[in-house]
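Hi V.,

You were right to ask for the full record rather than a summary. Here it is.
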Amino acid sequence: MTGKPLAGRRAAVTGATRGIGHAIAARLREDGADILATGTRPDGEAPEGCDYAAVDFGDLAATEAFAARLGSLAPDILVNNAGVSDPQAFAGIGTEEFARVHQINLTAPMILCRAVLPGMRAAGWGRIVNISSVWGAISKTGRATYSATKSGLNGLTAGLAAEVAADGVLANCVSPGGVDTELLRGVYTEEQFAKLGRSVPIGRLAQPEEIAALVAWMAGPENTYISGQAILIDGGFSMV
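Predicted structure:
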């Protein structure tokens, strides 16, 4: 499809000031959508041409307030990308931190999905893309909390999709593996980062724009029959 496939559509993208979220918002804007992007900082910067709202999804009251605003805007597309990770050995998981990560990664997306559904159903068209993770399908040491939230997001999305597909609303998860972002590069040394790339059959990590391209397709008019799925985009990592 050529031109601007999302012209005339309104989209909300959470966690859009950097990394994957920034790339998604920029791509949807390039495809013609009007974008409301969120970040946590009052002075955060969304991609050029996007509106911006500061929201702390770790705060339930702030999340509910933003959801009310979002519902009144009636977006055609919602991309829940905002999330956090707190790697911990299982014995060291704190109850409060466990709850905080679930609030941001799982409860907030549920609240936002719930808020946009009336408008999408009334319009007879909507696309919800929740950004999950390869760690929602598999896991490893230190990932129990994060994996719990992402596998939960996969289940939440499947249940949602079963209820709304007949109304023209398609809900899916996109589940990236390792992605080359400033945040990830800040965690690993150059040698560790290179080793991480070599662990992927393709031989490198994904670029944020590659994730954004899949999200844009899932959120666009060419997706007419995919719903309730958690689509892995990990260079084959989860298969080996």
